[in-house]
Design a protein that fits this description.
Keywords: Hydrolase
Number of domains: 1
Strand order of the largest sheet: 4-1-3-2-5
Strand content: 35-45%
Pfam families: Acylphosphatase
Mean pLDDT: 93
Order of helices and strands: HEHEEHEE
EC number: 3.6.1.7
Protein name: acylphosphatase
Radius of gyration: 13 Å
Enzyme class: hydrolase
Number of strands: 5
CATH class: Alpha Beta
Shape: globular
Largest sheet: 5 strands, mixed
CATH architecture: 2-Layer Sandwich
């Protein structure tokens, strides 16, 4: 097995929905910065219902760190709930804020 195949096998994808006071409090920008610090790929966006949706792809330990980070989020956020669904990785590249 090559290193690339091993790396691919260790990649996980978490699809996260965060509720609470998470819009208008720099949650998306803070999520982007935290993900980039951990070399996690994916995206984050606001939903019309007031939640924030994010996808994190990368090594399992780094993705789990991001899921844990979501429970606190940006300093001004007040997180009430974090729902996580694990999915098949889709090969995200980089981390961006989606509109």
């Amino acid at each position: 097995m090559t290193d690339d195949a091993s790396d691919a096998a260790d990649t996980v994808r978490a699809h996260v929905f965060v509720s609470g006071t998470v819009q208008g409090v720099y949650y998306r920008a803070s999520t982007r910065d935290a993900a980039r610090e951990r070399d996690v790929d994916g995206w984050v966006r606001n939903l019309d219902d007031g939640r924030v949706e994010a996808v994190f792809e990368g090594p399992e330990s780094a993705v789990e760190e991001m899921v844990e980070w979501c429970h606190t989020g940006s300093p001004a956020a007040s997180v009430e709930d974090v729902a996580v669904e694990y999915e098949t990785p889709e090969g995200e590249s980089g981390f961006r804020v989606r509109w």
